[in-house]
Amino acid sequence: MSDSEQTVYAKRTKTIHYGSLEESDRWHVDRKDNETDGSGKTDYSQLTTADYLSLDEDVAKEKAALLEEFERRKKARLIHVSTDDGEVKSALRKLNEPICYFGEGPADRRLRLKELLSALGEKGLPAAKPAKEEEKPKNQQKETNESTWYHEGPESLRVARFWIANYSLARAKKRLEEASEKVRQHSATKAGRMVELQKHIQQLAPQCSQVGDTRPITGCSINEDSTLLLTCSLSSLCKVWSVPDCTLKQTLRGHTFNVSDVAFRPGVANDSKSEVAMASCSFDGSVKLWSYDSEESIADINGHVPHRVSKLAFHPSGRFLGTACYDASWRLWDLEQKQEVLHQEGHTKAVHCIAFQVDGSVCVTGGLDGFGRVWDLRTGRCIMFLEGHLSAIYGVDFSPNGYHIASGSQDNSCKIWDLRRRQMVYTIPAHTNLISDVKYQKNGGNFLVTSSYDKTAKIWSDKTWQPLKTLSGHDGRLVGIDISHDSQYIVTASYDRTFKLWAWD
Q1: Is position 403 within any domain?
Q2: How do beta strands 362-367 and 372-376 pair?
Q3: Which residue range forms the structural domain that includes residue 281?
Q4: Which spans of this chain does UniProt mark as WD repeats (predicted)?
Q5: Contact 330, 287 (CB under 8 A)
Q6: Please, are residues 493 and 457 in contact by the beta-carbon 8 Å criterion?
Q7: For residue 365, what pLDDT is reported?
Q8: Closest CA to 265 of 342, 337, 321, 333
């Protein structure tokens, strides 16, 4: 057997070093110089007990230094430093430190400030306080920007607010008296009426189906006495039809772009002349007012261009017109003063729909930001924030009871809100596609109708929100719906260029 085969190799032990090795190496070099004689060999016989004690003291000092470093890093992590680079530079300047090193970024600079504050201890903290104090006004300013803000309005707005207050108080008194009478009615009487109403709803059938235009129909409205129907379409035309035979009576020409919505003005007789009886709005921002005796508009409302006006609604008094605009605002126009009295902002995205309460004291708006807001027209304040939908709101409406609000959204749901409690009370998983519009029964609020892009409209009972009837038959998505004031007719408008009039058999 050779000598190489008999050789036994010793395995070298692995040494783990903690922290920096600079001090440890320097100590070993000095110790080697002191313990080595001229021959280059270490004389271990000269080591004394004091040398061993000094070695233990050095190890203890290294451990203490490591613990101190760990505590300093922990303290640095707990120190809060502003993320604003300008404030970090200001804090470094107050500490008499360079505000920037070559190649140093904002994150590195912020880390350096933390290291300095941790090393200075309590002495360095007061110098960093101004940086924190400067953050407070900015945070307050950010909160102010996110909240609803108001600006001073013209004298015409003050006149309009006083008029609305006097008008709405009388109507609110009458509504509360009617509500008290309903409460005093016997429960069996109310239950019988509900059963009878549900039977009528089950008998709903198409009374008339009419091709309304050569382009998709985008909106519809029925007048107060349930004798006329107004439709609009993407062909820029608005048409007036008779009810229930759906005969064309008048074509309104004047828009040059797609018309998005129409509405009848309350309190105007069918035989009136040269009086504003109808209103329409367009994608190009134009709003036109129409009369029964002319096919041309008698007045134009300017101020929205070039932003789209998606929906409009008349105040219950007929004096004011509300418009929802895609510049994230809604407007209130006084037809007697013939000017805009309110330009209200508050939504973060386009405002798509608007509806007035039956008293005329408040209105509700819905936007593409997925939120709704209830506005007090007498004070201008936002008195309720509708938060709960997951996507844009395309339809809102007030119940005749004055405190229930329905909202339809792109999230396929319809939510019911209580103005008295200022919260949502129910969510109806109504359709399989987005809800384009919602409407309450006008003379009682006993049922709610929703229209959807799933080509159907559905009727829901009040209080229980159970489905009562599904109105199907359109070949395209439904974009508009309305209920007559006497609850005899329901009209649906669709992208299949037709509208259907539903009535009781």
Answers
A1: yes
A2: antiparallel
A3: 159-503
A4: 252-300, 309-343, 344-385, 386-427, 428-470, 471-505
A5: no
A6: no
A7: 96
A8: 321
